[in-house]
Write a structure and sequence with these properties.
8 helices; five-stranded antiparallel β-sheet; elongated; Chitinase A, domain 3; four-stranded antiparallel β-sheet; 3 domains; alpha+beta
């Protein structure tokens, strides 16, 4: 097999491929074995027609398309590899010669990956991210761990405050009618978490256990349920129980609960500092690499084929559709 690659303007080129006659005849043989199974001629059992009779009746040309279907995929793949190109789209194939006993000659117009022309990339200056770990960073990480190990304790007396967890019943109404998904019982809601519609959690602050109240809110314009977006709603709410977060003391016992490899709080702090230093160092190195690449890319020239943009857009859309389907939605409902 011979292959010739001719680069055209932009990101296109033409492959000219010649497949040996021997290989063509093998393709015709395979094509005959495939089609003869469905051929019935008087005097012969179905699928048992001799090759010479078939060609006399239908002509060898009747096998050409099936033979091409067999020969082209392999020949094109080998030609691409031999030419050292990277196609980004389905080629446009033109058959120039297809005949029994002769070589197969075809051309393939191909769109390939674009070549990048690098501009100035030596001596680039970028700002390195600060990877210093401060005492404040360590304290913030300790506070996060303290929050994670906090206990929820029932408030015997008192009112709902920001940060508390209120156990509530609620039912929502729009235009005086209840709506789907707007009702729940014994729901644990952390006040200030932003879980509910803006304004809902704020209006629970100050309520006491056993108290009932009507809360007025408005659904955001960009709310996922279009039938509710932008509409005012009324929620009937009852508070059953109020729980406050009780933080553990930051001492040696807390340190041992968090990490069984340490004995004291100071050892835990040292371990946190070391972990944060490694993390910040890795982040700084990654940020530096990204900044250098971005700076170099600004000086580069590249002509991206439209088909690559379309293929990438289609791929992202398919992935998004799959994620929506996992949530019981689809693109039609989403848009």
């Amino acid at each position: 097999m011979s292959v010739k690659w001719e680069k055209l303007e932009g990101n296109e080129g033409v492959l000219t491929v010649e497949v040996d006659a021997e290989k063509v005849n093998e393709g015709l043989d395979a094509a005959f074995k495939k089609v003869v199974k469905n051929i019935a001629i008087p005097g012969f059992r179905k699928g048992k027609v001799p090759r010479v009779i078939f060609e006399k009746r239908f002509g060898v040309e009747a096998l050409y398309q099936d033979a091409l279907d067999i020969l082209l995929p392999e020949a094109y793949a080998k030609a691409v590899e031999e030419a050292g190109i990277e196609p980004v789209d389905v080629p446009k194939i033109d058959i120039e010669q297809m005949e029994k006993g002769k070589s197969l000659i075809f051309t393939a117009k191909v769109t390939v990956k674009p070549e990048v022309k690098l501009g100035q990339y030596k001596g680039l200056e970028v700002e390195k991210m600060d990877d210093t770990v401060t005492d404040e960073d360590v304290e913030n990480e300790l506070k996060r761990l303290q929050e994670n190990y906090a206990e929820l304790v029932v408030k015997e007396d008192g009112k709902v405050e920001n940060g508390d967890t209120a156990v509530i019943d609620f039912e929502g109404f729009v235009d005086g009618e209840p709506f789907e998904g707007g009702k729940a019982e014994n729901y644990s809601l952390e006040i200030g978490s932003g879980t509910f519609i803006p304004g809902f959690e704020d209006q629970l602050i100050g309520m006491q256990a056993g108290e009932e109240k009507e809360i007025e809110v408005t659904f955001p314009e960009e709310y996922h349920a279009k039938e509710l977006a932008g509409k005012p709603a009324t929620f009937k709410v009852k508070v059953h129980e109020i729980k406050e977060k009780r933080l553990p003391a930051l001492d040696d016992e807390f340190a041992k609960d968090v990490d069984d490899e340490v004995e004291t709080l100071e050892q835990l702090k040292a371990k946190i500092r070391k972990r944060l230093e490694e993390m910040k160092k890795n982040e700084a190195e990654a940020a530096l690499r990204d900044a250098v690449v971005e700076k170099a890319a600004e000086n580069a020239e590249i002509d991206i084929p439209e088909v690559m943009v379309k293929n990438e857009t289609d791929r992202m859309l398919r992935e998004f559709d799959q994620r929506l389907q996992m949530q019981g939605l689809n693109l039609e409902l989403y848009y």
